[in-house]
Amino acid sequence: MTTVTIAGIPIGDDYPTRVCAEIGTNPGGNLDLAMALIRAAKEAGADMVKGQRRTPELAVPEAEWNEVRDTPWGKMPKLAYRHRAEFSDEQWAKLFDFAKSIGIALFTSVWDLPSLESMERLGSPCHKIPSARAHDSTLIIAAWQTGKPIILSTGMSDWEDVCAVTESLVFQELDRLRATLPERTVEGIFDAAWCREQGKLEKAIRVADAAIKRDFSVVGKAIDRWLEEHEVAWNVVSGRLVLLQCTSAYPPRADESNLRVIQTYKQSFGCPVGFSSHKIGIQTCLLAVAVGANVIERHITLSRDAKGSDHRMSSEPEDLARLVKEIRYAEACLGDGKKIVFPSEEAERKRLRGTPCTFL
To answer: How far apart are CA 108 and CA 116, in angstroms?
Structure first.
């Protein structure tokens, strides 16, 4: 499996599980509260902290703009609420500076292209695509083309959805690789395979047939080159992509967490995989570590009794600190998978066994 590095923090199987504290919408547009949450995340031992950046007019369906809802500031239209909860670019710049000053990496989920462009201007070290936008090919490809790592939450997605995203990123890399070739003269089956991927089956058959008639030896060379470039493209994608297993229910039932997907993603895509938790409590996060999660994303709040949609499912600072501690304990218990006799066993081994193993 490859390693993805975000703000100098390596993420992968050879490194500790990284903890990302999600402040989300919990600050409610209050800059001082956002800074307090960032500081609390740092003091709890989190590696990274994440916010959310969205353009309200794009994130809220127009039909819902005037829907009245309960908010921490009383009843107001949904669009007005979203505007009040958002930070401006100037405020985000202050948050990035603050996070840097206390030594913790900050980035955001981007919900739309203007938000992505905003985070690019501010120098975000990576871009998170939230589950709600995991179907948005325009946004995902634009984020990929920044050249920065991408974290993709996969709530509300099935297997075909996730494969479609990863394959689209591979095609992005193939296009980039082909653009760097000294000549655009890929022969025979290579061209045929490209046509087939683009849904042009009849043209693919004609190209392949013509290639074979010209020179059959071109077939093997083209296939070798095709496989080689695909491998390069996959390695690039897996070196910049982190997938998060997520269930977009608030909170999900235990049987909806589906933590075995973590290993499915790892085996299929070769990239780091994490778990974005919407559960109350930390037990599911620890189970995710046990099945191989490289990242745990967990909401943080100063009080679970605060008004707002995410506070109830968030961890207070002392709970987040306990989660970090328990993750490190779980990692120690998991070990490295190599079966050995520990020094603490030697005295008992000698006392109870006496003689060496007679099978050897």
So the answer is: 9
